[in-house]
Amino acid sequence: MFEHFDATLLARIQFAFTVSFHIIFPAFSIGLASYLAVLEGLYLWTKKPVYLELFDFWKTIFALAFGMGVVSGIVMSYQFGTNWSVFSDKAGPVIGPLMGYEVLSAFFLEAGFLGVMLFGRKRVGPGLHFFATLMVAFGTLMSATWILSVNSWMQTPAGFAMNDKGQFVPTDWWAIIFNPSFPYRFTHMVLAAYLTTALVVGAVGAWHLLRRTAPLRAGTMFSMAMGMIAVVAPIQIFAGDMHGLNTLEHQPTKVMAMEGHFESHPDGAPLILFGIPDQENQRIDYAVQIPKLSSLILKHDLNAPLNGLDTVARDKQPPVAVVFWSFRVMIALGFAMLGLGLFSLYCRFRGTLYQNAWLHRFALVMGPAGFVAVLAGWITTEVGRQPYTVYGHLLTADSISPISAPAVGASLVAFVIVYFLVFGAGTFYILRLMGRLPRDPEPHLGQGPIRSAGITPAPALAENHAKHGGAHHGA
Fold it and tell me: Where does the chain cross the membrane (predicted)?
């Protein structure tokens, strides 16, 4: 069935499919591990049971997401040997140790303390248990550090030399680890993980507020999530802008594709909002654009010249349509997150954070937005790097294993079937858990409002708690 397909294209699709499934779990678990640490810290500080109850609720979901992330990640490392053995041979001296450090210093740290975090509160005491939670959170960040260092080096390679076998040989490990794009990618990805988690937590809280179940717990998590989004979303937009400027410096062709600039603009480039890229004819059809705004954003000068893809050979251009649209999806969702954060601030200052159904519906709809934005961002990054695996040095076509298209195609079909069955079932179970937030314990219903991330819930919520608590005691 796959005899007439290109093996390189099928291998790229296979890796893209598996990494797309994989990335949604680390993007969630990185932020959720930090959220668990915050919840336990607040419980130890305030002694308010609601934080411990939320910790117990989310730790089960974290364990499932962490497990699925580990399993889906192992598959990708095998593909380096099966589908990309030439890349592994040539780049292995650089990326091999970095990925080994990820396992030794990060994954072992996460896995070593995960059991204590999940099952050891009554066995090790509150202080050591909190330390275990912090170590799990730190381990997720360390894991992201090493993986993003590997990917960033492939985007902006530094600190290496080529030997007589065509291999990348390390000459400066500091330059390799802290390559030119690493600080920007790491910051952008970690903030994306925190936003992804905040959107999920906020959506769960909004769902239960709309259903009027567990208002104390739902209100607490919703307030914390909206506060995080209001703070992090504008920071992420700024970090993304800085990352874009770094990409312009080191990977200008990728930015040309992101902006849809087929032509050079010596007197200021327009910002193309929408259009249909036509790579064959090197133009954007039906373009909706704002004159010179792209030059202002990228060069901080309305009349600054910007080169276009007409300065790049056709065989060195990335697939423009994919990069152009994935970038716009990411940007649109980023501003939608900013809008949600601002709307929540408005409702918070009006005292309607827990009563505004439109805010709750908005938060519920935005629940998956973080995952979509992360996927769109990685598509922009990886497809925009083409036709290279190591940017400017090793072509993707020269990285593939000597493998036939039918073999790659058969394994791709197997991956699609197994992934949708296994991880689809796991995701469905996580969603079921999210929909089963236990009702507020009766003894706490009459105690009035609590402070959630420094914010006092609205009096109406407290009155509702007191009313139900009074009814219970009267009965």
Answer: 20-45, 57-78, 98-120, 127-148, 189-210, 222-239, 325-346, 358-379, 408-431
Strand extents, DSSP E, 181-326: 271-278, 283-290
Which of 236, 94, 82, 75 has the alpha carbon at shortest distance from 158? 94
Interatomic CA distance for residues 427 and 450, integer angstroms: 32
Quote the tokens at residue 142: 């360390």
Q: For 340-367, give the DSSP string.
A: HHHHHHHHHHHT-TTT-HHHHHHHHHTT
Which tens digits make up the pLDDT trace of 179-220?
999 999 999 999 999 999 999 999 999 998 888 877 788 889
Structure confidence at residue 22 (pLDDT)? 85
pLDDT (0 to 100) of residue 467: 44
140, two tokens: 């997720």
Q: Which two tokens stand for residue 231?
A: 């703070």
Say how far apart CA 367 and CA 354 lie, in whole Å: 17
Give CA separation, 172 vs 38, 90, 93, 168, in Å: 37, 17, 12, 12
Residue 384 near residue 254 (C-beta atoms within 8 A): yes
CA–CA distance, 400 with 390 (Å, rounded to integer): 13
Q: Work out the angle at residue 312's Cα, subtended by the Cα atoms of residues 255 and 95, and round it to the nearest 5 degrees.
A: 65
- Positions in the chain whose pLDDT score sits under 50: 443-475
Please write the tens of the pLDDT for every residue from 82-115. 888 899 899 989 998 888 888 777 777 777 888 8
Residue 439 confidence (pLDDT): 66
| Torsion of the alpha carbons at 438, 443, 448 and 453, rounded to the nearest 10 | -50
Confirm if 375 and 21 have CB atoms less than 8 A apart. Answer: no
pLDDT of residue 339: 95
CA distances from 273 to 219, 261, 293 (A): 38, 12, 10
Give pLDDT, residue 168. Answer: 93
Tokens of 348: 């918070």
- Report pLDDT for 194: 95
Cis upstream peptide for 459 (omega within 30°): no
Burial 372-391 (b: 16+ CB within 10 A, else e): bbbbbbbbbbbbbbbebbbb
Q: In the chain, what are the helix, strand and coil shares in percent, each to the nearest 5?
A: 75, 5, 20
Q: What is the CA radius of gyration of the chain?
A: 24
Q: Give the residue from 155, 154, 149, 133 showing the smallest Cα distance to 189.
A: 149
pLDDT > 70 in the chain, percent: 91
Calpha distance 261→311 (Å, rounded) = 11
Distance between CA 283 and CA 458 in Å, rounded? Answer: 54
